Amino acid sequence: MKFEVLTIFPEIIECYIKHGVLGKALNKGIVEVKVYNLRDFTSDKHKKVDDYPYGGGAGMVMQIEPFYNAIMHLKADEKPRKLVLLSPQGRKFTQKLAQKFMEESKAMVLICGRYEGIDERVKAFVDEEVSIGDYVLSGGELAALVIIDSVVRLIPGALGDELSAVEDSFMKGFLDYPHYTRPEDFKGMKVPEVLLSGDHKKIALWRKRQALKNTLKNRPDLLKNLSPEDMRILKELC
Ligand SMILES: N#Cc1c(-c2ccc3ccn(Cc4ccccn4)c3c2)n[nH]c1N
Asked: Whose CA is nearest to atom 13 of ligand 1?
């Protein structure tokens, strides 16, 4: 899968993608990430990318021309790609949308603005407008990295098998269970006995109860379409 990122801060993307799961996926050739500096698609000597908003108001707005020139440059190879604009006004990004992107797109262009946003006319050239959450960031780059990271984790072969279950439980509609590792006793804080028991059935049930308990406490909105068994466990918790 190929990601092309348009930004005025390429170093934000370039620094992050070298590490962790993404770094490994890049080295395996499962993923390719190309970053384009929007300033390279300007036509003035100062490489200007923003201007004052029509109608007045605080802050600056990013001009359409660099985005247009960059998008036309990418489209010149006539290969299919999904163009995604990161924006506070976008549709909510979820694990389900990450799965959809992974399944449907061989290449994605992630368009990152800054300042108070970008000229509305850029949206005529994109396929999706996406937001990663109900809070205001300073630009689209962190959101682009969230999307790249979550989509790459879903690509077969990108993760070791032991990690893929994490996304699976989330997809089933509840949060993850608690994790513990050595030492067994840290300043009197002990690992739950059941995890030391070796009884895999008991451990699985404990983990499911804990996952449902955490979900009930922090994200009750996720508790939909539970299996009858999960519903039974949940009722015990209430
Ligand atoms: N995805 C996502 C985002 C963003 C986001 C994305 C792109 C830009 C380009 C500029 N800004 C700053 C800004 C500040 C104030 C009002 C408008 N825009 C962005 C913010 N904020 N929160 C999210 N979940």
From this structure: 116
Does the active-site annotation cover 232?
Answer: no
Q: Which of 87, 128, 146, 150 to mutate to test the pocket of ligand 1 (most atoms within 8 A of CB)?
A: 87
Residue 165, pLDDT score: 47
| Cα 128 → chain centroid | 14
- Mean pLDDT value across residues 126-136: 98
Handedness of CA 196, 200, 203, 207 (dihedral sign): positive
CA atoms within 13 A on the CB side of 11: 0
> Is 20 near ligand 1, meaning CB less than 6 Å away?
no
Provide the 3-class DSSP secondary structure of residue 1: coil
- Report the phi/psi class of residue 200: left, alpha or beta, with left for phi > 0 and alpha for psi in -120 to 50: alpha
Compute the distance between CA of residue 207 and CA of residue 176 in angstroms, rounded to an integer: 8
For ligand 1, whether the C-beta of 136 sits within 6 Å is: yes
Q: Rounded to an integer, what is the distance from CA 95 to the centroid of its chain?
A: 8
- The edge-to-edge listing of strands for the beta sheet with 2-7 is 32-37, 2-7, 107-111, 82-92, 128-131
Residue-level pLDDT at 238 = 86
26 exposure class (CB count in 10 Å sphere: 0-12, 13-18, 19+):
middle
